[in-house]
Amino acid sequence: MSDPTDPNDTPPETPAAPKPRKPRKPRAKAAMTDAAVLPETPAEPAVEEPVAEPEALPEEAPLEPAETELPEAVEAVPEAALSPAEPVTPRKPPIWKRPAWLIGAAAAVVLVIVLFASLFWSLPLSRALEPLTNSAIVLVAEDGSPIARRGSYKEAPIDVAKLPDYVPGAFISIEDRRFYSHMGVDPKAIARAVGRNAQAGGVSEGGSTITQQLAKNAFLSSDRNLRRKAQEAMIAVYLEARLTKKEILSRYLSSVYFGDGAFGLRAAARHYFGKQPEQLSIGEAAMLAGLVKAPSRLAPTNNIEGARERMRVVLGAMVETKTITQAQADAVGDVSPIEVQDKLPTGSYFADWALPQARAAIGARYGETIVKTTLDPEMQEKAERILNDYIARDGKVLNITQGALVAMRKDGRVVAMVGGRDYGSSQFNRADGARQPGSSFKLFVYLAALQSGMTSTSPILDTPVQVSGYMPKNHEGKYRDREVPLITAFAASSNVAAVRLAHDLGPAKVIKVARQLGVTEKIPDDLTMALGTGSMSLTRLTAAYASIAAGEYPIVAHGLDSFSKPKTTAYDPKVLLGMRDLLRSATHRGTGLEAAIPGAFGKTGTTQDYHDALFVGYVDDLVVGVWVGNDDNSSMNGVVGGGEPAKIWKAFMLAALGRQVAPTVEVDPMEDLGLSLEGEIGPDGLPLAPLTAAPPADPAPQPPNSGVPIAPPPPEPRP
Fold first, then answer.
1. Containing H/E element for 108?
2. Buried b / exposed e along 495-529 (16+ C-beta atoms within 10 A)
3. How far apart are CA 513 and CA 450, in angstroms?
4. Exposed site from 185, 198, 219, 426, fewest CB < 10 Å?
5. Nearest of 441, 488, 411, 398 to residue 614 by alpha carbon
6. 132 by DSSP, 3-state: which?
7. Taking the CA of residue 472 as centre, how many other CA atoms within 13 Å lie in the half-sphere pointing to its CB?
8. Rounded distance, CA 603 to CA 618, Å?
9. C-alpha to C-alpha distance for 514 and 56, rounded to whole angstroms
10. How many Cα atoms occupy the beta-carbon half-sphere of 115 within 13 Å?
């Protein structure tokens, strides 16, 4: 045994140190890598030694590694490649160094998630409890008599905790038996509905839960498509996460539709049974629950047998779900709704026109609101009768099929409105529809002239004219061929005079006057506007004439008794007096002679080719506008504003004022103007031919066909 302390003494069992190896070629790296993954094996068989023998080796003679001569080759081998437990994993670059498209896609996904979350979170959960914007309104006339009932009926929300158990139980039994177990969507119900619809070859059954119905009623449309159903399901799940089951059921019963315009259980209980929902019987609750499937078809006021049959189905479902016993179901007799009072008419031309004003005034409300209007039932009846009588009598000969009449006080309160001959056959309101006003638009032209400093006696040429390539013509080509006073041109409705005025003043001034008087429709900015080529409603035109009667502008036509009068501006007294003189001359000595009654002021209007004919005017504080024509815009048979419209206007005005016969006009309305009527306007209201020289003191006998020729009718110069 060798001495372990002797450095020159080497144990025979220890193998000799290997000789230094020459460096290998670069291929050694791959060979070394392959060797590194093999299990290590000693070059020679191991010699059994006592356990303590390795500790006796001298410290100053440590063992040299087998690969001492290959440090460079080993250095080149990655450390990870030397261990099979640690595979090579490339390091990911930081986010800001990744491709731009990848960063954009990730940002888009995050944005969509945030957007959806914010949209769901911002959903107004109480929308189903809010009152309707189209709540029920009962319009009554100025004397309190009902005119029409419009809108849907919805009462205050309900709380299911305060209802008898069988009331909500009836709805759950027939609409959603697993209401308390699902999370907004019921897969079993959907699968069942798909199967039955496939068997029926169409939609015969739905799979929506009560929560889905609430989502649809409160937030979505009633369209049937996959997109809407997907939205419905998503919102339903969200509602289930945000609300309790009782809250969901309360909102559902407060907003579901029950037919006859009744929304919500409280409104339905009052409408059909005259009760509060807390007082409903088992049969009444079952009947109301049965209406949800087809409210319009099964409403007991229209289909009592269908409602009772559906009620029996609901009672059976309530027994199956143990909401009630079979004995309770058998005890239910024939349930009947309360007797419906005489139904109010749902429509009229005036009601259609006044309803938006009422909506704006009351806003969204629960229940039913009574709104007082300005309508005078007696005047309304007279207006309808007179308009229809004249068209029935003369319409076939004159080719008139439709007409309209609007009557208002000088403050704009509409007391009668006829929008056509029969509301049942046509709901289009011709009193509020846009048609050309023709020569009745000349009110604005002459007002602009008076406001510019002219007077009723200021001269204007009544001769053919061409302005910027435009050549207006008087009716039947008749002209004075000289200057005439404004009052004469207005009374005779001279087109060339009106165009000359509009040219001299500028169309902008005329349009400004029309806007000041409340005209909001588009007005042509060329000279044709002087002849009423821009369309406007008869109601708005009549309100403009009412401003002359009132002495202030603008006058706003309105149908509510509670209307708040806007700020107005008083006319200049000279302008107002001059305009009234013009309107009086047109009615008593001009184209509107057929409408002449004491105190009448007005103007005729006829459009090209006799498409429209109008007369608008007033007596005292009653202002009336009349239009006749055809819906297809076909020409009438020579009808002018001074013909049928003036006759209808006069007949209605006499009836409204309580006058049976129009007395003879005693005062000449032009006498105070100092104007010679000879050679100006003939007895038929049309201008006479101009007098070229004064007649001799003793005129010689005239041939039979000589003398001053009088223009033939019709009495209305048109554009």
1. helix 100-121
2. bbbbbbbbeebebebbbebbebbbbeeebeeebbb
3. 11
4. 198
5. 441
6. strand
7. 31
8. 10
9. 124
10. 6
Pairwise CA distance, residues 494 & 479, whole Å: 8
d(CA 27, CA 213): 76
404-429 pLDDT, tens digit per residue, is 999 999 999 999 999 999 999 999 99
Please, are residues 514 and 526 in contact by the beta-carbon 8 Å criterion? no
pTM: predicted TM-score of the whole model, two decimal places: 0.70
- Return the closest-CA partner of residue 689 out of 482, 547, 500: 482
CA distance 557 to 563: 10
User: Which residue's structure tokens are 């996460």?
Assistant: 241
Which of these, 275, 293, 292, lies nearest to 284 by C-alpha position? 275
Q: In 193-223, which positions are buried (b, 16+ CB within 10 angstroms) versus exposed (e)?
A: beeeeeeeeeeeebbbbbbbbbbbbbbeeee
DSSP 128: G
| H helix and E strand count, the chain | 22, 16
CA distances to 95, 96, 398 from 92, rounded to whole Å, are 9, 11, 91
Nearest to 158 by CA among 168, 149, 170, 166: 168
Q: Is the pLDDT of residue 473 over 80?
A: yes
- CA 195 to CA 420: how far, in whole Å? 53
User: What are phi and psi for residue 125, nearest 5 degrees?
Assistant: -65, -25
CA proximity to 252, closest of 282, 301, 280, 288: 288
CA distance 717 to 492: 7
R_g of the chain computed on alpha carbons: 48
Q: Is 360:354 a contact under the CB 8 Å cutoff?
A: no
Long-range contacts of 676-683 (CB under 8 A, 24+ apart): 677/589, 679/708, 680/484, 680/488, 681/488, 681/491, 681/492, 681/589, 681/590, 682/710, 682/711
Q: Provide the strand spans (E) within 132-236.
A: 136-140, 146-150, 153-154
What is the arithmetic mean of pLDDT over 290-317?
94
Please state the three-class secondary structure of 47-90 as a single string. CCCCCCHHHHCCCCCCCCCCCCCCHHHHHCCCHHHHCCCCCCCC
Task: State how far Cα 369 lies from the chain centre.
Answer: 22
Reported as a single tens digit per residue, the pLDDT across 483-519 is 999 999 999 999 999 999 999 999 999 999 999 999 9
One-character DSSP codes across 589-635: TSTTGGG--TTEEEEEEE-GGGSEEEEEEEETTEEEEEEEE-TT-PP
Decide if pLDDT at 55 tops 50. Answer: no
